[in-house]
Amino acid sequence: MSVNINWNNLGFDYMNLPYRYRATWKNGAWEAGQLTQDNQITMSEGSPILHYGQGAFEGLKAYRTQSGAIQLFRPDQNAKRMQQSAEKLLMPAVPTEMFLDAVQQVVAANNEYVPPYGTGATLYVRPLLIGIGDNIGVNPAPEYLFTVFAMPVGPYFKGGMVPTRFVVADTFDRAAHYGTGQAKVGGNYAASLQAGKFAHENGFGDAIYLDPLAHRYIEEVGSANFFAITKDGTQLQTPKSPSILPSITKYSILALAKERFNLTPVETQIDIHDLDTFSEAGACGTAAVITPIQSITFEGHEHVFGDGTTGPLTQRLYNELTGIQFGDVTAPTGWVVPV
Ligand code: PLP
Ligand code: COI
């Protein structure tokens, strides 16, 4: 490798890599996309993304395997979710083939920046779809830009696979019941900044949200989904809610729990008062991977899971998931895609 990066010391930070993909939607159709070296975007000051948040993004990773090859994890699922987010905000869909081709092109063009196997680091790929063009009323944009850029990253939460403390943000909502919580759109994250700041300033990894109707059931973490293992060791539960992101990592873990660990996967309402019924809990997502939850603080009380160390099932799920992603463990059909 010719690039000079300390792969073992990466955080989750922006890096301006040589290539990104850009395509424009105009007059009802996508124009041919291409790679560019320019990381700046110029647009009309009236662009709906700037005023009214008409935009959606995705996050997926490219992994270097032991043989030096590069692979993606379930990129078709990201394509599908971006189409669902686009529909929610009245944006044109990026066809799956175009999405996958853009991701492939960006990873291949920046291939020196895909971290070496064994460092735990990965290339984080960020597709972004935004409404642009002259506009001032609350309307869908006249034009759209689809871009895909990437950067090498390390762990999202400090230390990576280490037990992390979370706090319930019970005076904040991330998304409304019938709002945009299911879509990966910027407004959900703007709405999470205050609670995230509170969590970080008080020594927590991030905030956990409760449902916006009853303020009683766990929704998700500001940057990841939530799962927990019942004390009898039979069920892996995750919250069921119309206002959380349908996490690709979560659905992968639910499938692995059932098919490889003989656990019953259950999507259900998880009452914040019932944390005692679980022996282990975790945050899961592309950036978060699987982060063990050491404790959840709610109304001034810190509930510690087990003895506060990484639970055995959380560890096994982590090993299985990352084993598949880095090519050391056989993947279910279609889950890994070579670059
Ligand atoms: N929930 C939120 C709010 C997220 O930002 C993410 C990250 O993408 C997730 C959940 C996890 O989703 P995925 O596993 O598809 O990355
Ligand atoms: C991801 O995991 O891809 C995310 O989008 C989380 C993020 C907020 C960094």
Automatic annotation (TrEMBL):
Key words of the record: Amino-acid biosynthesis, Aminotransferase, Branched-chain amino acid biosynthesis, Pyridoxal phosphate, Transferase
Pfam families reported in the protein's UniProt record: Aminotran_4
Involved pathway(s): Amino-acid biosynthesis; L-valine biosynthesis; L-valine from pyruvate: step 4/4; Amino-acid biosynthesis; L-isoleucine biosynthesis; L-isoleucine from 2-oxobutanoate: step 4/4; Amino-acid biosynthesis; L-leucine biosynthesis; L-leucine from 3-methyl-2-oxobutanoate: step 4/4
Alphabetized InterPro entries for the sequence: Aminotrans_IV, Aminotrans_IV_CS, Aminotransferase-like, B_amino_transII, BCAT-like_C, BCAT-like_N, BCAT_family
Cofactor names: pyridoxal 5'-phosphate
Domain of life: Bacteria
Transmembrane segments: none
UniProt EC number: 2.6.1.42
GO molecular function term, any single one: branched-chain-amino-acid transaminase activity
Swiss-Prot/TrEMBL catalytic activity: L-valine + 2-oxoglutarate = 3-methyl-2-oxobutanoate + L-glutamate; L-leucine + 2-oxoglutarate = 4-methyl-2-oxopentanoate + L-glutamate; L-isoleucine + 2-oxoglutarate = (S)-3-methyl-2-oxopentanoate + L-glutamate
Broad EC category: transferase
Statement: the UniProt record of this protein carries the keyword Transferase: yes
NCBIfam families, A to Z: ilvE_II (TIGR01123), PRK13357.1 (NF009897)
Family: Belongs to the class-IV pyridoxal-phosphate-dependent aminotransferase family.
Entry protein name: Branched-chain-amino-acid aminotransferase
